[in-house]
Design a protein that fits this description.
This protein is α+β, with helices and mostly antiparallel strands. It contains nine helices and seven strands; from the N terminus they run αβααααααββββββαα. It is 51% helix and 16% strand. Strand 3 and strand 4 form a beta hairpin. The two termini are 22 Å apart.
Length: 233
């Protein structure tokens, strides 16, 4: 399966505040404009911005407080990602989009297994990247409203330490019964969902969905995540 680099940058940008202690805010006039359109009957897109910001601030506090411990025991970053980052993702919706037509053909049990193993895959593959990007800066840009209420793209960019080309990171968010959730992430225009969909579709076409599920479970097992970890969806 192809490596899906976008999520590594996503987790990196959420941990990018550790050395800087704050956000660089740009284009908050756009948030004011959004406030004018928001009504009591419509989800407020500013809450999506606040969710992204609040998540990053909590990670900042945790990484500062536990940096020595996490560097000595990097496997504990799994728990950190599960508790602080993943609850803000609509994993069932993401999983459905990633599988595409194969989701419709899958049994309820196969769907459940895919959501669980896909979630574990993302945790185990990218959790350790949090401590690798602590000196980058994160800039919050003007959000882009969706085509209908309850949709917004929270736009940010990563500013590498010592200069370098900024990396745009867009969070596509949807408002549902549990509030705002991330449903896709685009890094430099590359979609997390599309990246995994292309990789998995190729494998399913050649080997079948059941083989993909078995391989995901085996890789997660070898990586040391016990059954029950990362369950969701």
């Amino acid at each position: 399966m192809a490596r899906a680099r976008p999520l590594a940058l996503l987790l990196a940008c959420l941990g990018a505040l550790a050395a800087w202690g704050g956000w660089v805010l740009a284009g908050w006039g756009g948030a004011a404009a959004l406030a004018e359109v928001a009504t009591a009957s419509r989800p407020d897109p500013r809450e999506a911005e606040q969710l992204v910001q609040g998540t990053a601030e909590r990670l900042l506090q945790i990484l500062r407080r536990r940096e020595a411990e996490l560097r000595e025991h990097p496997e504990r970053l799994y728990e950190l990602v599960r508790e602080e980052v993943l609850p803000h993702f609509d994993f069932r919706r993401i999983a459905r989009w990633v599988l595409g037509k194969h989701w419709r053909r899958a049994t309820p049990e196969q769907r459940r297994r895919f959501v669980t193993e896909f979630r574990r895959l993302l945790v185990r593959t990218y959790a350790r990247s949090l401590l690798d990007y602590t000196e980058a800066r994160l800039e919050l840009l003007t959000s882009r409203p969706g085509s209908r209420p309850g949709r917004v793209t929270v736009r940010t960019r990563i500013l590498p330490p010592g200069g370098g080309e900024p990396v745009p990171v867009d969070y596509l968010m949807r408002h549902g019964k549990e509030g705002w959730k991330v449903v896709d992430v685009r890094i430099g225009g590359v979609s997390l969902v599309a990246n995994y969909r292309a990789s998995f579709a190729s494998q399913i076409a050649s080997q079948g969905l059941e083989r993909l599920l078995a391989e995901l479970a085996e890789r997660n097992r070898r990586a040391g995540q016990a059954p029950g970890e990362g369950d969701g969806g």
